[in-house]
């Protein structure tokens, strides 16, 4: 199986994000797609050659999580950008945030606080596939810390590559720009 990078060129020109930042970020994402394919092809070849008991096979199996999740998380991130940031207060997602957080404002405060935490990683609104509950989570690395059985509903990249070119160390300004550009219909489409 070969993965193909999705075209996110439509994001160039998005409000409060420079063309250079968006193009660099898309190029980084394309690298995850390329490396996912390379790792999978190498693992397939090693399996055919019965080299599965080697340290190289084990390390590539570990590396696959990094590359694959880097690909998928960036797709989750890019797929909800390009909107106008308009929150539909009566939407199913809005009602679910109120149910699980008490209010949309409380959810937003919590999510932004997660995104503003020191470190590199991801702020993710997850939905538990077992009980349907929404919760915000910090993920340090692509390949570790994801809650099992949960669906990412909203993903915000807070690695430096996502904002430093435009915002330097002003992560809070980047977070505001991110929310100005969220397509909430695309986010809600992920809700079960």
Q: Give the class from helix and strand content and strand pairing.
A: mainly alpha
The ordered H/E elements are HHHHEEEHHH
Tell me the CATH architecture of the largest domain.
3-Layer(bab) Sandwich
Widest sheet, order of strands? 2-1-3
User: Number of helical runs?
Assistant: 7
CATH hierarchy class name of the largest domain: Alpha Beta
Regions with little confidence, pLDDT below 50 for 5+ residues: none
The proportion of residues forming helix, as a percent range, comes to 40-55%
Radius of gyration: 18 Å
| Average residue pLDDT | 96
Please tell me about this protein's structure:
The chain is mostly helical. The protein folds into 2 domains: 18-79; 92-188, Iron/manganese superoxide dismutase, C-terminal domain (minor pseudopilin epsh fold, 3-Layer(bab) Sandwich), CATH 3.55.40. The protein has 7 helices and 3 strands; from the N terminus they run H-H-H-H-E-E-E-H-H-H. Helix 1 (19-48) packs antiparallel against helix 2.
Short overview:
The chain is mainly alpha-helical and 192 residues long. The chain is 50% helix and 11% strand.
What's the topology here?
Layout: H1 19-48, H2 55-79, H3 92-101, H4 104-115, E1 122-128, E2 134-139, E3 150-157, H5 164-167, H6 171-180, H7 184-188
Antiparallel strand pairs: 1-2, 1-3
Give the key terms.
192 residues, mainly alpha, minor pseudopilin epsh fold, 2 domains, 3-stranded antiparallel beta sheet, 7 helices, 3 strands, 50% helix
């Amino acid at each position: 199986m070969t993965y193909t990078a999705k075209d996110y060129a439509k994001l160039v020109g998005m409000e409060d994000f420079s063309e250079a930042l968006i193009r660099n970020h898309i190029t980084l994402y394309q690298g995850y797609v390329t490396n996912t394919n390379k790792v999978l092809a190498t693992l397939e070849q090693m399996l055919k050659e019965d080299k599965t008991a080697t340290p190289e096979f084990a390390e590539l199996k570990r590396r696959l999580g990094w590359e694959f999740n880097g690909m998928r998380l960036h797709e989750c991130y890019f797929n909800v950008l390009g909107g106008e940031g308009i929150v539909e207060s009566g939407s199913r997602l809005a009602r679910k945030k109120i149910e699980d957080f008490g209010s949309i404002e409380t959810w937003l405060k919590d999510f932004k606080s997660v995104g503003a935490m020191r470190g590199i990683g991801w702020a993710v609104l997850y939905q538990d596939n077992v009980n349907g509950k929404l919760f915000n989570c910090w993920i340090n690395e692509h390949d570790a810390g994801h809650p099992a059985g949960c669906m990412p509903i909203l993903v915000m990249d807070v690695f430096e590559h996502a904002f430093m070119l435009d915002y330097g160390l002003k992560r809070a300004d980047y977070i505001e720009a991110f929310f100005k550009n969220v397509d909430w219909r695309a986010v809600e489409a992920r809700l079960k």
